[in-house]
Automatic annotation (TrEMBL), chain A:
Residues 412-614 form the Histidine kinase domain. The modification Phosphohistidine is found at H46. Keywords: ATP-binding, Chemotaxis, Kinase, Nucleotide-binding, Phosphoprotein, Transferase, Two-component regulatory system. It catalyses: ATP + protein L-histidine = ADP + protein N-phospho-L-histidine. PROSITE patterns: CHEW, HIS_KIN, HPT. Residues 1-103 form the HPt domain. Its EC number is 2.7.13.3. The keyword Oxidoreductase does not apply. This is Chemotaxis protein CheA. It is an enzyme of class 2 (transferase). Residues 616-752 form the CheW-like domain.
Automatic annotation (TrEMBL), chain B:
The lineage of its organism: Bacteria, Pseudomonadati, Pseudomonadota, Alphaproteobacteria, Hyphomicrobiales. The modification 4-aspartylphosphate is found at D53. Keywords: Phosphoprotein. The keyword Phosphoprotein applies. This is Fis family transcriptional regulator. It comes from the Bacteria. It comes from Pararhizobium polonicum.
Length: 765, 121
């Protein structure tokens, strides 16, 4: 794993943390005062900052730092998370997300906006009200968190074993060169008195290790004062009895010496004094009353390359001394076995209890992360398996007309298992719609800000799961619809108050499963569709005739027409050039439907119904002019055998079918797809009553129905090219490729827009 | 023999950086995602030194250090705290909980290895 991969992980993690941050802030906004929520929010920002620091993403670090400081005030109850405060924080979360995106993908952020938020956050942290928005004054980005001076790099330790035996051992990092003494002699010298307290050891520090570290700074001599060491029977093994006096020559300075003892600062007495050069080395041997102790480096660092023969004799004599030193300096486990066992049992039990409690509070199921490619490969393979299983069934049936029951039973079981495997594999890719819904919260905030409206987003059913591919494609149309709902749907606060509503508008986003599909509903409590205005606009844009007689529903659905916009002026939002027609098309591309219902004065409801997956489909296999086609089952309302009396001619070529006293246009699929030149006789075929997006019904004429089955969708675009009127292809049990009918395209082609379709299909052949 | 380091950090990014840095420096690395997991695997991991974050879900670094220090076997193990908070107050709290030393983030591989070497034999 290299740094780039870790960076990739960092950005993935950022996305999760940002989602966590946002949902936490929204919970706080809803009045949740659980300290763990605040902690989680704090942690999210903290984590982002930590990772960003490691990658030198200074902008991100400095913003996260300010944000974190303010959150810390909330965490420590210095700042009450009021709606005002949370508003700033939610905006800050948005900026943090922007900064993260910029750090990953490049580009630039709105400097003025982030500078403004930094000011607001800082003001909050100081306990002031957020300053009024004034984006004029640019604030220089804060310097990245100052990096503490790097700890002096340790020089490789080269032990010098001299001939003194018990005498102090001098440490030198230079080679055994003869001019060594001169060089060292010129270096500044320091006397260090180091007296550890017992706490030093209980915190896992080690006097010997600190001294070893010190030895890396320069040549030094060391004396251990063991005066306070009591007789063995009075000795408490966990008390510090020793102190050390060290004389060192180093050019690294006093700070470097002190930084060696950085971790031990609180737990020792440390005295560092600079001495005149020349005195230091003598002081160690002559002036001190203390008993010198051999300092055996090999005992401290097993990696050191010490010539064994030289050390050996020293070691033997030193062993006793060393043992004593070890006893005192290490925290020795001399406590009785029984008490130790009891203590550890207790701590384990305590940990377990805590563990249970914690687990209960955060009941997150264990998860693993899998590369999406692997899942996709699995899904493809299972798709092949399904096809293969169907082929096997078919050939068994064809070759074995007697129906050997054991084979048939085995096949049935295989079929069931295959279906289960397929469902399970699909479930792997299924994800809750929550992330998309959360993104919408931001969209709502931004548009509310731009339009000056006060909006509240309510979400329901965020945990409804749907295939990841569907989720990915859902965000864009949903964003646009939310924009529309706030921009066009909701009224300005004054107007709402005048209409007897609360000043704050509500946009509600819900998701639920309905008969094998996911239904997403977006409702607002705004003014509803102004049908007069829509109608006028449609007439102005030549969408409908001036005297057209349209039902309310039909008028409402006019907003899905291309190039339709009811906005009086091109605002910041509607100026994006995306209309509801695009929304409709992207929903349809997902195999979904969208409908609107509106009540003037009470708001509108957009209902989208989408397939749970884009990988399989329940379809009706039909024959049209000798070709096998699959019609998505969700589109079919009913099938019927037309009766000659029910067929009526209409105009030159159109025909209608009378179904329960209402007329429905009859569409010959074979003719529309140019499979045949003339219309088939309806009485010889079967009519499939389908519901199209506009809400109207059509009867599709096919020659025969073969059956109903689940098919694996194979994209035509990916393997061939887009064919109008055809949504995708599949492989049937007999190994043949069948085309999946795009019902909506066929229906709209039948409305007289068929020229383009016909010519292109003719080209396809 | 390789020295064993137990790292405890909830951030996947930092965990990976620790792993790469420590492995490159010749340490054996065992990782936990929070204090609870850290305590759970402590006995099995049997590390020579511990590096832990402070801000973590379920059980934070302070609690984790206290938990380790309560364990007879590990009460003297060197524990380094990864911290972005370089102010004395936070350090002091970590020390009171029983931390041996600290590494100030932003994460710097050299500093990390230096600090580990400073507290391990």
């Amino acid at each position: 794993m290299d740094m780039n991969e870790i960076k990739e992980i960092f950005f993935q993690e950022c996305e999760e943390q940002l989602a966590e941050l946002e949902s936490g802030l929204l919970r706080l906004n809803d009045g949740d005062r659980d300290p763990e929520t605040v902690n989680a929010v704090f942690r999210a920002v903290h984590s982002i900052k930590g990772g960003a620091g490691a990658f030198g993403l200074d902008d991100l670090v400095s913003f996260a730092h300010v944000f974190e400081t303010t959150l810390d005030c909330v965490r420590s109850n210095k700042l009450e998370p009021t709606q005002e405060v949370l508003k700033v924080m939610l905006k800050s979360a948005d900026v943090l997300a922007d900064l993260t995106n910029v750090a990953r993908d490049g580009g630039s952020v709105d400097q003025a906006r982030s500078a403004q938020l930094i000011r607001e956050l800082e003001a909050l942290a100081k306990g002031e009200a957020p300053p009024a928005a004034s984006a004029s004054e640019p604030v220089a980005p804060k310097a990245a968190v100052a990096k503490p001076a790097a700890v002096a790099k340790a020089a490789p330790v080269e032990p010098v074993v001299n001939e003194h035996g018990f005498a102090p051992v001098a440490f030198s990092f230079d080679d055994f060169g003869g001019d060594e003494d001169d060089a060292v002699g010129d270096l500044p010298a320091y006397d260090i008195v180091f007296k550890p307290k017992s706490e030093l050891y209980t915190k896992g520090n080690e006097a010997t290790l600190l001294l070893r570290d010190l030895s890396r700074l320069g040549e030094m001599s060391i004396h251990c004062n063991m005066d306070s060491l009591p007789p063995l029977d009075q000795m408490d093994p966990e008390t510090a009895y020793f102190s050390w006096k060290v004389s060192i020559k180093t050019d690294k300075g006093e700070d470097a010496i002190r930084s060696v003892f950085e971790f031990a600062e609180w737990d020792c007495e440390l005295d560092v004094t600079a001495v005149e050069t020349g005195e230091a080395s003598d002081a160690a041997t002559d002036d001190l009353p203390m008993q010198p102790v051999p300092f055996d480096l090999s005992a401290l660092d097993g990696d050191l390359d010490v010539p064994l023969g030289v050390v050996e004799e020293e070691e033997q004599i030193a062993a006793a001394q060393e043992a004593a030193a070890e006893t005192a300096s290490n925290v020795v486990q001399m406590a009785g076995n029984a008490s130790r066992a009891a203590a550890s049992e207790k701590s384990v039990a305590a940990a377990a209890a805590q563990n249970n409690a914690q687990q209960a509070s955060s009941a997150a199921a264990p998860t693993i992360r899998v590369d999406l490619d692997r899942v996709d490969r699995l899904i493809n393979l299972v798709g092949e398996l399904v096809i293969n299983q169907a082929m096997l069934s078919q050939s068994v049936i064809e070759n074995d007309s007697n129906g050997v029951s054991s084979i048939n039973m085995g096949l049935e079981e295989l079929q069931q298992l295959t279906r289960e495997i397929q469902d399970s594999v699909m479930a792997i890719r299924a994800q809750p719609v929550k992330p998309v819904f959360q993104r919408m919260a931001r969209t709502v905030r931004e548009i509310a800000d731009i339009t000056g409206k006060s909006v509240r987003l309510v979400t329901e059913g965020e945990n409804t799961e749907v295939d990841k591919t569907v989720i990915d494609k859902l965000a864009e149309p949903l964003t646009h619809m939310i924009r529309n709902a706030v921009d066009h749907g909701l009224e300005m606060p004054e107007k709402r108050l005048a209409a007897g509503k609360s000043a704050e508008g509500t946009v509600k986003l819900t998701a639920k499963h309905r008969s094998g599909r996911i239904v997403i509903e977006l409702s607002d409590d705004g003014a509803g569709i102004n049908r007069e205005k829509v109608r006028q606009k449609a007439i102005d844009n030549d969408l409908i005739a001036a005297d057209a007689n349209l039902s309310d529903e039909e008028i409402d659905n006019l907003i899905f027409h291309a190039g339709f916009s009811t906005a009086d002026k091109v605002s910041d939002l509607s100026g994006r050039g995306v209309g509801m027609d695009v929304v409709k098309r992207s929903i349809q591309a997902l195999g979904g439907r969208i409908n609107i219902s509106s009540k003037p004065g009470h708001g509108s409801v957009f209902t989208m119904s989408l397939p749970l997956t884009l990988a399989v489909l329940d379809g009706m296999v039909v024959t049209v002019a000798g070709q096998t086609l699959v019609v998505p089952l969700t589109a079919i309302v009913e099938t019927l055998q037309p009766d000659a009396a029910a067929i009526h001619s209409f105009g030159a070529t159109q025909r209608l079918i009378s179904i329960r006293n209402s007329f429905c246009p009859l569409v010959d699929v074979g003719r529309i797809l140019n499979f045949r030149a003339t219309q088939a006789n309806p009485v010889e075929g079967v009519a499939l009553l389908v519901e199209s997006e506009g809400g109207g019904q059509r009867a599709l004429m096919v020659d025969a129905i073969q059956g109903q089955r689940q098919v694996v969708i194979k994209s035509l675009e990916a393997n061939y090219t887009h064919v109008p009127g055809i949504a995708a292809a599949t492989i049937l049990g007999d190994g043949r490729v069948a085309l999946i009918l795009d019902v909506d395209a066929v229906v709209s082609a039948s409305r007289g827009q068929s020229l383009q379709l016909e010519s292109s299909l003719a080209a396809v052949g | 023999m390789k020295k064993k380091v137990l790292t405890v950090d909830d951030s996947r990014t930092i965990r990976n950086m620790l792993l790469v840095t420590l492995n490159n420096a010749g340490f054996e690395t065992i990782q936990a995602e929070d204090g609870i997991e850290g305590l759970e695997i402590l006995e099995d991991a049997n590390p020579d030194v511990i590096v832990t974050d402070i801000n973590m879900p379920r059980l934070d670094g302070f609690g984790f250090i206290e938990g380790v220090r309560k364990n007879e076997k590990f009460r003297a193990i060197p524990i380094l705290v990864l911290t972005t908070e370089s102010d004395a107050e936070k350090k002091n709290r970590a020390r009171q909980a029983g931390a041996t030393g600290w590494i100030v983030k932003p994460f710097d591989p050299t500093k990390l290895i230096d600090a580990i070497e400073r507290v391990t034999a």
